[in-house]
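Bug report

Summary: structure tokens for carbonic anhydrase differ between web form and batch submission.
Environment: batch mode, default settings.
Steps: 1) Submit the sequence below via batch. 2) Compare with the web form result.

Sequence submitted:
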Amino acid sequence: MQQPFVELLQANARHADEFQSKFDDVQDSQRPEVVTVCCSDSRVLQDRMWENDEPGRIFTCGNIGNRVVQQTESGTVVSGDVLYPIEHTGTNVAVVVGHTGCGAVTATYDALTDGVSELAGIEHCLDLLKPQLEPGLELLPDDVDRAGSINRLVEYNVDRQVEFLRESDDVPDDVEVVGVVYDFQDVYSGRRGEVHVINVDGETDVETLRDDNPEVDSRIERLWEY
């Protein structure tokens, strides 16, 4: 075995020592409070960003581009990864987690603007993002550089994923859908590793969101309102 995996096993042994009793209440079932849909970028610490060390609390999904959509024979539907906890475990909060410098958004941007192609498996994922992102290209400000365009499209993608969940008949109306961006590039005004709320149930106006959510008003921030 290569050393990186050996080190993972060693870390897992320490994890098992610490978590022996933490699985007592979730041996036979789970009732996660939240389902998160994160980008599967190695820099996005999907549980660690919430300081989560409680098994059964967060149902975590990951894919490139933090997508909630899945293509089936009957068309585009909410991904089963996201829908399962909502349908079967009583989860009533869904959080779409984008992140600064997203590679999937970058690759989709390049595919749409320059016709750059990828390997078939990656291309399939990008094809699910392209319809979500393409309308946003025309809305980009003229005075932002490539990095600024990518990070604005990160927000745009989160908005579209939130919108898809809100409009789906498969997601009950009482499920709250929140869109956030995880920043490790000093793009937003907070510290590296902070999550910034950009969308709650389709509402994207920063001042409205701050008025409606005063307990977290300092964490509500957007790069653009198109």
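Above is the batch result. After comparison, the two runs are identical; trailing whitespace caused the diff. The chain has a mean pLDDT of 97. The longest helix spans residues 146-167.
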